[in-house]
Amino acid sequence: MDHYLEQPIKFLPGVGPRRSEMLGKSLEIRSFRDLLFYFPYKYLDRTRFYQIRDIPTDAAYIQLRGKITRIEKIGTSSHERLVADFTDETGTVLLVFFKGIRYLQQTLHLQTEYILLGKPGIFNGKINFVHPELEEVSHAETSIASSLQAMYNTSEKMKEGFLNSKAILKLQTTLWRGMPGRIPETLSDSLVKRLRLMSLHDALFNIHFPQSIEYLHKAEYRIKLEELLFTQLDILHQKKNRETKTKGFLFKKVGNIFNTFYQNRLPFELTNAQKKVIREIRQDTGTGHQMNRLLQGDVGSGKTLVALMSMLIALDNGYQACLMCPTEILAQQHYQTLRNFLGDMDVQVELLTGNTPKSKRKTMMERLRNGSLQILTGTHALIEEPVQFANLGLAVIDEQHRFGVAQRAGLWNKNVTPPHVLVMTATPIPRTLAMTLYGDLDVSVIDELPAGRKAIQTVHYYDSQRLKMHGFVRRQIKEGRQVYMVFPLIDESDKVEYKDLTMGFNHVMDVFPPPEYSISVLHGQMKPEEKEREMKRFVQGQTQILLATTVIEVGVDVPNATVMVIENAERFGLSQLHQLRGRVGRGSDQSYCILMTPYKISEDGRKRIQALLATSDGFEISETDLKLRGPGELEGTRQSGQAFDLKLANLAKDGILLQYARNLAEEILSEDPELSSPENKPLRKELIRNHYTTEHWGMIS
Ligand code: ADP
Ligand code: MG
Question: What is the CA(53)–ligand 2 centre distance, in A?
Fold first, then answer.
């Protein structure tokens, strides 16, 4: 059976070289198995026929039954098309074909009964069908009988080559007719029995040829569960591997440095959530295993302080620590923050970025190697080759979604024993997604903001209400507050960004003219020094308005800034909007977020704005984001490197099933950690064969 499924698709009768190339290029169907796993996007009820007089104007694909009463070739030779009248007892519609005219002329017959499948359109007040599928009623049983007909996505180009949905269905039919036996189970017998699952063979058959709605539902359930279960088995196995096999540094104690900071320097009471997370980190680092923890906390929840206090624990145990973040500006700010928090304490902290001068860099490297430099903060310059720590015990990565997995691994290789890793993110990832994406990490959550924060007031203005916005900004500035104005960044490299910003800048200059007002500008095409200078002017209160593209998105902290104006807010993603809003409301003053949009915006754009107006809870927002955009596009998931090979299961919708699969996977692995029992052989085989990360499964055995 495996042999049959692994055959190249060109060997399937009816495919041949031209079609096999098309299938490979457009749909990545290269083998029989690929075709088998190319699932329909929907089903058409073949028992339902419309009468021509009842055709709804907004219909999707429908079926008619009737005869062709006229066929005619019209137009000039370069623009020729074939038109035909299709008639049933209740009326006539027009059929139009632009391609394959000669072939159609030879094969379509007058006065023969056909089943027509197509999408109705209207032209000159008459209903027409462009390139409908036609099948003679007497031939209608050429595919495997099924009242629900599978519909497959194909590209425009494929359709022109007559490789349409129906053609794919025909290939599926050929594939199944040639099947030499039953498709072997991938789940253990006991699991199939206990969960009353449809067999894999029957499930796959019913996905392509549903024998009834009930069978189709059972088939979909089986496939979804299977997809989620294997992902979870894989992730949990990886996690267990790491926990039992990867030794980590033992942080035995909380010592002098931590305690001095806690007693003398801590400017405020920790929130309960901060305390809880520090406790979790203490526990992890005290076991002798390597910590790999994701810290999720909404913007402004105080993650930096948690990072600092964790690093102090590392120092207390004689280790070094580092704090890495994605941008220069953020790195500088972190450095300043750490310095301010530590004050006169004798802790050696330095900043390393791409702009650190050579001479300074050299002494820094020496002090890193001899261990006298204790905390290094900076950008990805931190993980570049010549950076050698004497004994890096803890690596904190802020705003992780900017870092790929490879970069995380880069940190690990600095020592023989990997440092503990704490990944911090303010882009909360919904539970369902965290489980698949970061299933091998432990997750901590700061679900509480420091006391005394006032909720940010968010409003939505149309561009026509701009004057109102200006007036509001003026009043806030008069009260001594500062204001962000953000313009959408279209593309880092795009000139348009610069143009938009310049135009926006000129406009803002007109409305807020010097010397009464002063403005900082920040965008992606500025040199780092310029950015730094502009940012500094704003941070130090010399400018009242910071005009920027989304380069300020991450981490920037100016407590006196109380207004965030977002221009063309409809062009931003939901998480991005939430991040931007989180730049204000960081001090004790009431803060505001003003979303500016044109009057006409897309349905999705409107939903995003509504979501932002409705809640300030980052988790709720990311759930909505997931539903609006789908998991593949969620920030932070694109470069994650995790297998996302879910064909039917949908992380946005199948949360409950995912949890179920997770529990199941846990149960299976707790009884048989390496899946080595004869019972679990199919599971193991599938994990090694399949599309999941095979490495760690391959290593054992
Ligand atoms: P984020 O989680 O977004 O990185 P920060 O670490 O930048 O948040 O913290 C936001 C602000 O809250 C900072 O000014 C920080 O000093 C302050 N802060 C942190 N923890 C507390 C606390 N327990 N009480 C009061 N303010 C705090
Ligand atoms: Mg932060």
Answer: 63
Residue 138 neighbours by CB under 8 Å, 6+ apart: 113
pTM across the whole model: 0.65
Is-contact 392 320, C-beta < 8 A? yes
Give pLDDT tens digits for 269-284: 999 999 999 999 999 9
Choice from 269, 274, 305, 324 to test ligand 1 binding pocket (greatest atom count within 8 A of CB): 305
Which whole-number Å values give the CA distances from 347 to 311, 501, 504, in the listed order?
Answer: 11, 42, 44
Distance CA 701, CA 695 (A): 12
Kind plus residue range of the DSSP H or E element containing 408:
helix 405-412
Tens digits of residue pLDDT in 601-631? 888 899 999 999 998 888 888 888 877 876 6
Residues with CB under 6 A from ligand 1: 268, 270-271, 274, 297, 299-305, 426, 450, 557, 559, 586
Q: Which domains does the chain have, with CATH numbers?
A: 42-151 (2.40.50.140), 256-446 (3.40.50.300), 457-615 (3.40.50.300)
Report the distance separating Cα 175 and Cα 149, nearest Å: 16
Ligand 1 centroid, distance to 339 Cα (angstroms): 15
User: Which residue's CA is minimally distant from atom 16 of ligand 1?
Assistant: 302
